[in-house]
Design goal:
The protein has a seven-stranded mixed β-sheet with strand order 4-3-5-6-7-8-9. A four-stranded antiparallel β-sheet has the order 10-11-12-13, with no helix packed on it. A four-stranded mixed β-sheet has the order 18-17-16-19, with helices on one face. The longest helix is centred in the N-terminal third of the chain and has 22 residues. The chain starts with a helix and ends with a strand. The protein contains twelve helices and 19 strands. This is CoF synthetase.
Length: 428
């Protein structure tokens, strides 16, 4: 069957000079190289970014004598906001620019500009990594997120792109019952893209309804913005008969890394970014296997340069079987790092990977209030008779001298971003 949406997309791109196709071809060619050769191929692109920044940005003007990328300072959202006008390049440099804004998980606004070339690269990145998950242009996309006004597409554009804009705030049992009845009748190829917590909510609904695996021709499932726990991974693959992958991205940059089907490690988008992993407490490189801060240099944004940008997230890195550095774990915000009573960092996956032991709990959030003081907020389907066992189990991770309490709530509220935090560290 001819996919008219795909045909139309590439026809329009051809009229515009094949700008997306050329970027996509470049990405594919780069990933066909070995890691060293890829970096050599991207060196002129990095050089163009750095030279443009030092010659046209007041903030970076003092670095004209640079010898390498590491001569540039590490910046973060706060530094960019405070020096926005001095960092941002003249509009004439990047061939036009577009405003990109995010409220952030906690509601703190952040805005940058992206150049025309960056927007084209982002589109090509999206197509490339979607294809790797099994999605093709023109497939129906079930896009489940918080649809703030500045994200929501006009209805006609959503229809043209075949996107179902499903809002996490409107997902309830009544909606899902009707939705899945319609979904199983629609035999066109389709893919899921959603917050991991939204997928978890869907799985809980299907579990409660004792649903069998659904015959709805899902060929791609991508979880974004939050860590993907084992329960959600297994249940989504069971119900939709399709591998699920986790994507690491942000609004200001784009797709930084993504899992491939049936792999837990994250392939880093070396074609469009130079990624560093720096130590938690300094700007020195983290060792392989050591938890570190994700620092990104966006090779294609010639509007608001993102040079050595500290994303605020942490990860561990290793060398993959193809010789490329990859993320073995992406843990999320550095402000959400959990420590035990000895001050040692422990993975938030102690929650994700052990909740299957307590199926009567709908939602769980762990709050670290002081170094040895922890609070679990739990939403239970009924009476929770295993509180003592629950506390004793998690004290094995937190420390036997931990002060652990449990608070029962009817709902753990969503953040302004539409996500739901599993870990909250109030000591940072």
């Amino acid at each position: 069957m001819i996919n008219f949406r795909s045909e139309l997309f590439w026809l329009l791109d051809k009229v515009k000079g094949n700008v997306i196709r050329d970027n996509l071809k470049n990405i594919e060619e780069l990933f066909d190289l070995d890691y060293k050769l890829l970096q050599e191929q991207n060196q002129p692109v990095l050089g163009r970014l750095l030279d443009t920044a030092v010659n046209h940005s007041k903030f970076y003007g003092t670095y004209k004598g640079y010898e390498s990328l590491q001569d540039f300072p590490v910046v973060n959202k706060s530094i960019i906001k405070q020096n926005f006008d001095e960092i941002t390049l003249p509009e004439s440099i990047g061939g036009g620019r577009f405003s990109v804004s995010t409220s952030g998980s906690t509601g703190t606004p952040f805005k940058i500009y992206q150049s025309e070339g960056k927007r084209r690269r982002n589109t090509a990145d999206t197509i490339y990594f979607a294809m790797k998950s099994g999605f093709a242009i023109g497939d129906r996309l079930l896009y489940l997120r918080l649809w703030a006004a500045y994200y929501k597409k006009p209805e006609i554009l959503a229809w043209i792109q075949n996107v179902d804009q499903l809002d996490v705030e409107e997902i309830n049992d009544t909606f899902l019952e009707s939705f899945f009845k319609k979904l199983t009748k629609d035999k066109q190829r389709k893919g899921w893209l959603a917050y991991s917590s939204a997928f978890s909510k869907i799985c809980n609904y299907l579990d409660k309804g004792n649903y069998p695996p659904l015959d709805c021709n899902v060929t791609s499932i991508i979880a974004m913005s939050e860590s993907l726990d084992l329960y959600t991974r297994e249940k989504m693959e069971y119900y939709f008969k399709c591998p699920i992958v986790s994507r690491y991205s942000n609004v200001e940059n784009g797709i930084i890394a993504q899992q491939m089907p049936n792999r837990k490690e994250f392939d880093i988008n070396w074609a469009s970014y130079y990624v560093e992993l720096l130590k938690i407490d300094s700007d020195d490189p983290a060792d392989m296997g050591e938890l570190g801060r994700i620092v990104v240099t966006d090779l294609f944004n010639l509007a608001t340069p993102m040079i050595r940008y500290d994303t605020g997230d942490v990860a561990t890195m290793k060398i993959g079987p193809n010789g490329f550095p990859e993320f073995s774990l992406v843990q999320g915000r550095i402000t959400d790092i959990l420590t035990n009573t000895k001050g040692e960092i422990i993975s938030h996956f102690i929650i994700h990977t052990n909740l299957y032991r307590y199926p009567e709990l709908e939602q769980v959030q762990l709050i670290q209030r002081k170094n040895k003081n922890y609070l679990f907020k739990v939403n239970s389907t009924g009476r929770f008779d295993r509180e003592g066992e629950f506390i004793a189990f998690f004290k094995e991770y937190l420390g036997e001298d931990a002060h652990v309490s449990v608070e029962y709530v009817s709902e753990i509220p969503l953040l302004k971003s539409g996500k739901r935090k599993i870990i909250v560290n109030e000591t940072t």
